[in-house]
Structures are given as structure tokens and as C-alpha cells.
Specification:
This protein is of the alpha/beta class. It is built from 35 helices and 17 strands.
Length: 826
């Protein structure tokens, strides 16, 4: 009989009462529960507290054998019962206490018990001895569970031991960053997290930008929005690893000692939000089976958890309300824990969790400085990569030409706004010896060519698995998987389903069918394309949702399933697929798609109709060829939709992209409230064309408008924005933000400003040389001062009378006499 079957038959409901009989019942004056106790003092069949006779011990062993060995001949089962009774009797002689036993774990304790009862199976046949050994090992976890449950001390000790191992596993599992699933001979694909992590920024309507990793500073519940590839998952990894290591920056000291739970929604989306006991098993953590019973519940009850719920958008739209309910109930049931929930912006509405005290933040697009830092780090990693390469002497030149291209080429600058796209651009630029295609479709086509064909061919690498497929069959097979996910609303599929899908389509692709069966072809696509991965045993997904969407769009266009697309256009999960379909479609197909998006639909909700029309507008920039009258018709239908009435609507318009700038109304005659919303929309579009529109708002006296314009500076060309916007803003009661040395120099060229907000890390020397001393009256240090908390250098500013600092910098010293210190938020 399989030992796993024996173990499975020992149901807790039956076994727990039997195991309890082996140990004494504690009452007043009983055995202590606050320190280790020898197991021999706990057993109930010997000593002064004896309640179990030898016959009773055999009865307990017989009940366990009968439960586990159903179907085994009676004579053999009785022999195993006697042997098990002798083994259980050895509990009274083992040389250890309950804490030591628990720390040994089930397997180690079973071995120790076998040594204590060496003659237990002396009269057994070989088969009976095997059954006895399996039954003894199956009983041991229940014995340890009883020992843990009787003593709070043992429970705490076992929890501590497990948490040490769990922390190591968190670090091992997340302490690397795969920027993109590229497997090039000369390009790095996976970097150590601490070397690769690039600090991103969050933004809100009310306050300045702040480093994303400090989103949890002073907050215990945060909903973080970010577009695809913006770094949400990377931030989750960084937080989990930093907390597991205990290596935290000063602003995050409040997270020290917490237990991180990384909970990607895609892992449990089909089964709903898991209960604490199922956190680890739901995400297929390798230590799920080793966690002490009730451990996760105790962590949350003690308020020690850091819950990192990643990717609400990965759940089907109809299931998100269930997730929302869980995110309301669990924080209320277990107060004191810290929650970070991430999502794409379009998946949840504004204030989705606001009534439950979740602060809502948005990951900002990478700044120019962030893009520069990423490109430099990528090339540094390439130069240091152990794989070497034939072009190492060219990397310096590649780095500089790419930096110039990103600064100068508008289309490329628009694409390089998040870590995913920056990594892809760096790899493509190197792989193509300094050449880059333009436009999103061309970029993905180039990426597919690099990943699916040119990579191995240019390295003269023979196929390691014996399968040699050209690019087009690979694309068609990958499209089948992506299309299945689209039809079924999934971003992940079972491995078996993937193989079944390939088996169904292989006969129609003879070049692939001749080289292997569905299992072999699946393994080839997984190992050699760089587009698929197995995030957990038994499942497969695309390295990034963007590639799934692109390949889905290719499949839809080839199948002419345009009505199918139009029917689902109100769903946010389909936005990228529809945009890419317009980019891939022929002119007449584009017309059909766009008119389908504009057409009235029976029983359509108003919000869905608005979404379709805005999506039609967003698709215009992707259409390679489109009749002018069709473009005009889209503009006519959407003209009235680009006067947002809420800040949420203003931001949503900005997410559509530069095409919105062509449709926004003339801001000169609108109210200050509407002007503010229009500034939010235009300022959300990271394209220098927005400067022309924002310049038409620069003479407003409204503080909200002026503050919005000042805060958008970092997204655009520094000098141009300074001359066309910053130089014209009314200075009254306005903090001018500075995030990098270029902005500091530009502000100095403008003669300085009386109120300045320093939102980037600077040295005292940089600030004393960069700020205009004769003008500065109010200074806001909105960054983490770290060790530089002595502010004697402020004496260089004779007119300074107010200093504002964040709560994390409250303990500053050396502030000159007469300068009032205000702690933000207090």
C-alpha cells in the first residue's frame, strides 16, 4: 500500500481524539505550557498521572491501524497493530522535550522514534514491516501537532523556526528581477534585485510625488495603480525581500519584523481570495505543507503581516467584487496588518477601497532621469555579465546613442516609460547593432523576430531539443495559446490545456507537426522562444501580458473576428487587444472596427458606450492608413467626451495617450475648475506636445491649476518646460518642485523662486549652490534625508523663515534660529 494513501486515510477528525489519549490532560497545577517539557512526562501510560493501560495503548494503535490499513488482511493488520503499540510506547523513553521534537519535524521525529523502539517490527513479515513503518511516519505529524497545540511556548518556537526558513525562501524566490524574457547570448535577462531595482515614483492629486517603495510609510492600507509593465510586481518583490531580510530604509522601519505574504491574484483567481491558512498553498509556495497549523492565522491575529496582493486586474471583471469584499473583511477582521494592493488603473474605479481606509496612489511613468538610469544600469550589467560577448567594446557607444535616441525620438520616448519597455528597447538596440524600429507594432514585430528566429540563427546555435521551427509556425502556435486565453478570460492556463490546444492545431501546421508531438512542441516553445514561462508547476503564461495581447490581436485579425472584438470592447482587459488589432488590420478592417466601436448598441450601459467611443479615439494613432472622413467621424463622436467632469475622468483621458491632445477643448474660456481637470488630463500625457496645450493654462491665477502645472515639470523636456511654463506661473503660495539637478539649474536661470519643494535627493552643497539665496523664503524637503539630518547649511539662506519636512524627517537638527519647522501631515 502506498504510504501516501495511508497518510491520507488518517483524517484529523478521527486521529486527533486517539492521539490525545496518549497524553495527560492538564488541569490546575498541571504541566507547564510556558517552557519545554520532556515528552516522557507528558505520556498518559506511565508515571504518577497514568490514565492509559497497556491494553488501552494497544486499542489506540488498533484504531489507527484499522483507519489507515483498510483492506489489509486481518492477521497482518493485527501484527502491525502490536508493532505500532510498541512504537507508541517508546514515546515514554525518547530523550527529548516537546520543543525539540517539534523542531525535528515529522520525518526527523519518526526516525528518532524508530531508534527508540528498535525491536517494534521484529516479528513482522517484510510487507507488514513496510506497512508499520509507513503508519508510524503517518502518525508522527499528528503527534507533533498535538504537542504544538498544548503549549503556547512550543507554538511560538515552532512559528519562529518556520518563519526563519520562510524568510529565506522569500528572498530566494524573489531576489532577482527578470526585466524581460530575453535569452540572448550577449544580454542580461535576470539581475539581482538589489542591483537592478530602480526606484519609481507614486503620485496623488493632493501631494507631491514620492518614491514608490515608501508608499507604505505612515500607511497601513494602500491601493497602488500602475499600467502594464510599470513596475508594480517589481515593487512587491522589493518590499517582500527587504522585509524578509530586515534590510529596510529608515522610512520603512515600521515594517521591520513583519511577515510578507506575496499573493499574486492570478494564482487564486479561480478559487476566490484564500483564507489565511491557504495563503501559501493558493500561491503554490514551496513551504505550504511545512507551515505549522494555524501559523498564518496567528501572524494576522498578532498584526504582524505584510499582505502584498498583486494584480487585481488579473481577475475576471465579474470576480473583482468578491476580491473587493475580501479586502474589506480581512483587514477589519485582522487589524494591525499592512496591506498593499496593486492593479492596472482601468480595472478598478477611483475610491474602490477608499471607504475601507485604503489610500490610493498611482505609479508615475518613469521620468527622463529614471529612463536614463535604467539604460545606464542595463548596459553596466551587460558589461559585467559573465556570458561575455563579441561586442563588449561597442557597449559604451550603444549606451550613448540609445540615450540620445530616447531623448530626441518622440515615438521612442513615448514607448520608454516603464521598466518592461525600457528593457525591451535596450535588448533590441544591442541585438540590432544600434538600430531600432519605430512605433509599437514595429517594436513588437522586431521583438518577435529577435526572440523566435534571429537569436539562435545569428549565434549559429543548433537546436538543443532537435526541433528547428522557423518564426512563422512558432508565432501561429503561440497565437493559439494567446487566443485561448483571450476567449476564456485568462492570463494563465494549465499546462495540460496548453498541450491539448497545441494538439488540436498541430495538424494544420505540418512544419511543426513533423518535428514532434504536442508535448515536445510545447516544451520547445517554453524553452526556446523567451515568451512563455511556467510560473508554477502545472501552469503556463506569457512573460508579460503585453505579448499575450499582441498575439491575441494577430489571431483575431487573421480570423476576421471583428464582431467578436466589438462585442467585448467595453471590457478593460480587451483594450490592448483592440488597439493592436487596429494596428494590424487592413484599412477596410480598421473602418469596420472603428465604426463598430462608435455604433449605438441596444441595452448598452452609458459608461460602456463612453468607453467604446474613447477607445475608438485611442485607436486612431495605431491605424497606419485611414480615410480622413473616418478619422473626422471619430473626432466628432468623441468631442463632447473630452470635457471631463471629475478628476478620475480627467486622468482616464490622459491614459488614452497623445491623441487626446487633438480633441481637448480650448482652455482659454473655461472655468478654473474645468481648467484644473484639463491640466490633469494634458499633464498625464508624457509627450512634449502636451507643453503647447499646458502653456495655454499658464496665466491662470487658480492655485489648483498652477500647482498642477508646476508638478508636471518632470515629465517633459526640462529647459523647454521651464521657459514655456515655469517662467510664467504666478509665484504666490506656490511650491515649485525640483526633482533633479537639471531642474535645479533651470530654476536658478529663471532667477529662483521664493517657495521650493525638493522632491529628489540632493546633497547640501548642490542645494546651497543651486537655490537662489536672496529669494528663498520657504523650503520643503520632501525626500528622505537619511543621515543628512543636520541642517546647519540652511544658514546660507538669510530670508528663509519656513522649513517643511515629512514625518520621516521630523528629527532634524541644526535648523537656524528664526526658521519655523512644519512637519507635513501633522
Amino acid at each position: 500500500m502506498d504510504p501516501a494513501v495511508i497518510s491520507a486515510r488518517l483524517a484529523p477528525g478521527v486521529v486527533v481524539p486517539l492521539i490525545a489519549q496518549l497524553f495527560v490532560t492538564e488541569g490546575p497545577g498541571g504541566l507547564p505550557g510556558d517552557r519545554p517539557v520532556r515528552i516522557s512526562a507528558l505520556v498518559s501510560f506511565q508515571g504518577d498521572r497514568r490514565t492509559l493501560t497497556e491494553r488501552d495503548l494497544t486499542r489506540v494503535a488498533g484504531a489507527l491501524a484499522e483507519e489507515a490499513l483498510c483492506g489489509v488482511p486481518l492477521a497482518e493488520r493485527r501484527a502491525v497493530t502490536d508493532a505500532l503499540a510498541r512504537t507508541l510506547h517508546a514515546l515514554g523513553t525518547v530523550d527529548m522535550d516537546d520543543l525539540q521534537a517539534v523542531r525535528l519535524g515529522p520525518e526527523g521525529f519518526a526516525r528518532h522514534l524508530a531508534v527508540a523502539a528498535p525491536d517494534a517490527d521484529r516479528e513482522l513479515s517484510a510487507e507488514a514491516a513496510r506497512l508499520h513503518s509507513a503508519l508510524s511516519r503517518a502518525v508522527c505529524p499528528h503527534i507533533l501537532r498535538f504537542l504544538t497545540g498544548r503549549s503556547a511556548f512550543v507554538t511560538a518556537a515552532e512559528d519562529a523556526v518556520f518563519e526563519e526558513r520562510y524568510a529565506r525562501d522569500i528572498v530566494a524566490g524573489h531576489d532577482h528581477l527578470t526585466i524581460y524574457g530575453i535569452d540572448l547570448a550577449d544580454s542580461p535577462d535576470t539581475w539581482p534585485l538589489d542591483a537592478a531595482y530602480l526606484s519609481l515614483e507614486t503620485e496623488t492629486d493632493a501631494g507631491p510625488s514620492a518614491p514608490a517603495e515608501q508608499a507604505l510609510t505612515g500607511r497601513d492600507r494602500v491601493l497602488l495603480w500602475g499600467v502594464a509593465g510599470s513596475g508594480k510586481t517589481t515593487l512587491v518583490q522589493w518590499l517582500a525581500v527587504s522585509v524578509a531580510r530586515g534590510d529596510l530604509p529608515a522610512p520603512l522601519e515600521g515594517l521591520r519584523g513583519r511577515v510578507p505574504f506575496v499573493l499574486p491574484v492570478r494564482r487564486f483567481r479561480r478559487d476566490g481570495f484564500p483564507a489565511p491558512a491557504a495563503f501559501l498553498s493558493a500561491v503554490r509556495h514551496p513551504q505550504a505543507g511545512a507551515q505549522p497549523p494555524g501559523w498564518a492565522e496567528r501572524v494576522l491575529s498578532d498584526g504582524r503581516g505584510l499582505l502584498l496582493v498583486d494584480g487585481i486586474d488579473e481577475a475576471p471583471e465579474e470576480d473583482r467584487e468578491q476580491l473587493r469584499q475580501a479586502l474589506r473583511e480581512l483587514p477589519a477582521r485582522y487589524p494591525g496588518n499592512v496591506w498593499l494592493v496593486t492593479s492596472r488603473p482601468s480595472a478598478v474605479r477611483e475610491n474602490w477601497l477608499a471607504s475601507d481606509r485604503f489610500a490610493e496612489l498611482k505609479l508615475a511613468p518613469m521620468s527622463r532621469e529614471g529612463v536614463t538610469a535604467f539604460i545606464r544600469r542595463w548596459h553596466t550589467a551587460a558589461r559585467q555579465d559573465g556570458a561575455g560577448g563579441t561586442d563588449l567594446d561597442l557597449l559604451d557607444g550603444y549606451e550613448e546613442t540609445l540615450l540620445d535616441a530616447v531623448r530626441i525620438t518622440r515615438d521612442l520616448g513615448r514607448l520608454a516609460t516603464n521598466p518592461l519597455m525600457c528593457g525591451l528597447i535596450c535588448a533590441l538596440h544591442r541585438d540590432r547593432r544600434g538600430y531600432l524600429p519605430r512605433g509599437r507594432k514595429a517594436l513588437y514585430d522586431a521583438a518577435l523576430s529577435m526572440l523566435l528566429e534571429r537569436r539562435d540563427r545569428e549565434r549559429a546555435m543548433p537546436p538543443p531539443d532537435g526541433i528547428d521551427l522557423p518564426q512563422e509556425p512558432k508565432i501561429r502556435l503561440l497565437q493559439k495559446l494567446a487566443h485561448w486565453m483571450l476567449l476564456n478570460g485568462r492570463s494563465e492556463m494549465d499546462r495540460a490545456t496548453a498541450i491539448e490546444t497545441l494538439a488540436r492545431h498541430l495538424p494544420a501546421i505540418p512544419h511543426a507537426a513533423r518535428q514532434g508531438g504536442p508535448e515536445e512542441i510545447y516544451r520547445h516553445l517554453l524553452n526556446r522562444t523567451g515568451l512563455l514561462r511556467e510560473p508554477a508547476p502545472g501552469s503556463v503564461d506569457f512573460v508579460h501580458r503585453t505579448f499575450q495581447d499582441y498575439l491575441s490581436a494577430r489571431a483575431v485579425v487573421e480570423r476576421h473576428d471583428f464582431d467578436f472584438l466589438i462585442d467585448h470592447a467595453h471590457l478593460d482587459d480587451w483594450e490592448e487587444v483592440i488597439r493592436m488589432s487596429v494596428a494590424l488590420a487592413r484599412p477596410d478592417e480598421c473602418v469596420y472596427l472603428l465604426e463598430g466601436l462608435l455604433a449605438a448598441r441596444k441595452d448598452a450601459r452609458p459608461v460602456h458606450a463612453r468607453h467604446r467611443k474613447l477607445l475608438a479615439a485611442a485607436c486612431l494613432e495605431h491605424a497606419t492608413e485611414l480615410a480622413p472622413e473616418v478619422r473626422s467621424r471619430v473626432h466628432r463622436y468623441t468631442r463632447d467626451l473630452v470635457r471631463p467632469t471629475t478628476l478620475e475622468g480627467a486622468r482616464a483621458l490622459g491614459w488614452i495617450g497623445p491623441i487626446v491632445l487633438e480633441m481637448l477643448p480650448d482652455p482659454t474660456g473655461v472655468s478654473d475648475e474645468e481648467a484644473h481637470r484639463l491640466a490633469v488630463t494634458a499633464g498625464s500625457i508624457a509627450d512634449d506636445r502636451a507643453i503647447d496645450y499646458l502653456a495655454r493654462l499658464r496665466d491662470r491665477t487658480s492655485w489648483a491649476v498652477r500647482s498642477q502645472l508646476a508638478g508636471a515639470w518632470r515629465r517633459y523636456d526640462t529647459d523647454r518646460y521651464a521657459e514655456e511654463i515655469i517662467a510664467h506661473l504666478d509665484e504666490r503660495e506656490l511650491d515649485f518642485p525640483v526633482t533633479d539637478p537639471d531642474e535645479l539649474r533651470a530654476l536658478r536661470r529663471l532667477g529662483g523662486r521664493p517657495c521650493v519643494q525638493i522632491a529628489g535627493a540632493f546633497t547640501p552643497r548642490q542645494l546651497t549652490e543651486g537655490l537662489v539665496a536672496e529669494r528663498l523664503t520657504e523650503l520643503w524637503l520632501a525626500y528622505d534625508l537619511g543621515e543628512q539630518r543636520n541642517l546647519r547649511w540652511l544658514s546660507a539662506f538669510p530670508r528663509l523663515h519656513t522649513l517643511r519636512v515629512s514625518a520621516r524627517n521630523a528629527e532634524v537638527t541644526g535648523v537656524p534660529e528664526g526658521v519655523q519647522v512644519i512637519v507635513a501631515g501633522s
